[in-house]
Amino acid sequence: MSNKLKVGIVGGTGMVGQRFITLLENHPWFEVVSIAASEKSSGRTYSEAVEGRWKLNAPIPEKVKNIIVKNASDVEDVAKDVDFVFCAVDMKKDEIKALEEAYAKTDTPVVSNNSAHRWTPDVPMVIPELNDSHLDVIESQRKRLGVKNGFIAVKPNCSIQSYVPALHPLRQFGINKVTACTYQAISGAGKTFNDWPEMIDNIIPYIGGEEEKSEQEPLKIWGTVEGSEIVKAKSPIITTQCIRVPTLDGHMAAVFVSFDKKPSKDEILSLWESFKGKPQTLGLPSAPKQFLKYMTEDNRPQTRLDRDYENGMGVTIGRLREDIIFDYKFVCLSHNTVRGAAGGAILIAELLKAEGYVKSK
């Protein structure tokens, strides 16, 4: 009998759900025992449910091929077999909110890839290296939900996870203004080139809702727990443009930043090299050993060459130089469906387990 925590994946047939499946294949702490999806997929084996829809290069893991997919809306049925769930469903925001709260109210923790609860005041939105202290608000959330063990924790938008980690160690110098232009892969829309041929040889200068998320979510990440809620930071001012580009995986950002007290270039490079968060201190299974890596070549990082740095869980940075309007500018890159989606959520779950929030039922 395995002593691993039993995991359910709600929304397991979509691209992010598939990424959860592959990343958890040989996980030392977690084992996928249940997969749920829409009613049309339920009642079929997982391999049948994703036939013709499998979007990843890695094959479907043998252990999950014959799992019978459940209906995600049958909350009690899914929850009874698992210790916690990952949620990555394609539904309307209000429906996702209700579904995730329903799971939490069965005393089942929910680690969500969805945006629905990112601005719920007592739901922590976590990049584990940056704001692990926000987990403190979970006890207030449990009181609101009337549960002992259930809760919801969410992963932030994939686009901010290239540049916010790079900015985070520099906050001691008083970041006051940030401009970021993100160049986002098509997998961020759940697509491959096979099902989105219009993206070949094309750039689309608009991604619905993305710029508001990119400008506001960092402020919650950098906010503080005050009583029963997380209060977002008042600064810096962040403005963004988010552009869809013809790459499969990897979100790149061009960043411009100004400070109250301008650091030297050597100070910035030293802070990036030495930065460690709670996942590195705890040695969590999915944690990159070197979270932030500065690349000295003029033409790096590059999406195809560098998105898989630290198994897709690290952030690469390059081209740090002074700017004539802002203090500095640089570029950075993260893997949007690993660090920015399923892998980031798995790291949150590892942190939650290590801190005692997720345990065997």
UniProtKB/TrEMBL annotation:
MF terms in GO: aspartate-semialdehyde dehydrogenase activity; NAD binding; NADP binding; protein dimerization activity
Active-site annotation: C158 (acyl-thioester intermediate), H251 (proton acceptor)
Record's signal peptide: none
Keywords: NADP, Oxidoreductase
Any GO BP: threonine biosynthetic process
Gene3D superfamilies: Dihydrodipicolinate Reductase, domain 2, NAD(P)-binding Rossmann-like Domain
SUPFAM superfamilies for this protein: Glyceraldehyde-3-phosphate dehydrogenase-like, C-terminal domain, NAD(P)-binding Rossmann-fold domains
Residue ranges crossing the lipid bilayer per the database entry: none
Domain Semialdehyde dehydrogenase NAD-binding residue range list: 6-138
Entries under Pfam families matching the protein: Semialdhyde_dh (PF01118), Semialdhyde_dhC (PF02774)
Tagged with keyword NADP: yes
Record-stated family: Belongs to the aspartate-semialdehyde dehydrogenase family.
Protein name: Aspartate-semialdehyde dehydrogenase
Organism: Acetivibrio clariflavus (strain DSM 19732 / NBRC 101661 / EBR45) (Clostridium clariflavum)
